[in-house]
Request: fold
Amino acid sequence: MKNKIDFSQPLIVLAPLAGYTDLPFRSVVKKFGADVTISEMISSNALVYKSEKTRKMIEKSPDEDPYIVQIAGNKPELVRDAVQILNDIEGIDGIDLNCGCPAPKVFNHGSGSNLLGDLKKLEEILGTVKKYSKKQYTTAKVRLGVDTKIPVEIGKAVEACGVDFVSVHGRTRAGKYKAPVDYDAIKLMKEAISIPVIANGDIKDYDKAQEVLKYTNADGVMIGRGAIGKPWIFYQLKHNVEDINQDKKREIILEHFDAVIDFHGIHGAIMFRKLLHSYSKGYQGAAEFRDIINRVDDQKVMRDMIENFF
Reply:
């Protein structure tokens, strides 16, 4: 099987972000430069118990290739069943296990970053994914620990499961999204294991991405919140350009809008409001623009407003 993921150049990956990295957003960043896209986090339970909404979350756009689905779970038999369901769905190139989500409802359920506090359990769950998956790639997304940073131990546990690469967010579970990102810890993990390591956490612009790659010697960067309202960061990294002109930004915003309408239908314009709040940050007249946008639900009117404002 031909390797779809090429590590000869640093990999540029879109992080899974609940509520943001749906099919329209992924298709846009893919078109403009992301090497790999990953679904929003999918609960193994929801998948196994046939949630319609969950099935829709897995759908991918035709240009998403390679495409990875991220699952969360803490019971080997449920994770096995989830993996077997994904095995039967065409067009998925890999399965990623979430071992990093700090959200209380995920953590308290024993999933996400909870697994970092019990590496035996992490290996059991991740080993289950590896054992049953028929997809080309098995990967894991981790943090540095629950309260204490143990990057080397986590790296080795993940590597022992035979994964193809690991993405590491440079904070502990306790650090949520506020603590400073520890790039030294990412560097330590990279030095301790032989599988590719993707650096994640506070990579908000082109310069930061270059700096993190150089400092940690990571095999790629994973960008999540830094891409909300600025998805052109993928274009910049792909084409190695520091600056991006207004026309390109407008093109990307309109492309995103059209994709949202296309996928979510009539409700799409209302969903796009929160995205326009992010897109308009830093623009003159943004507050006024957001005020008006909050009352618009006609897609034609909204599209015209986007063209005029940006």
Observations:
- The mean pLDDT is 96.
- The chain has two domains: 11-239, 246-309.
- Residues 74 and 109 are 8 Å apart (CA to CA).
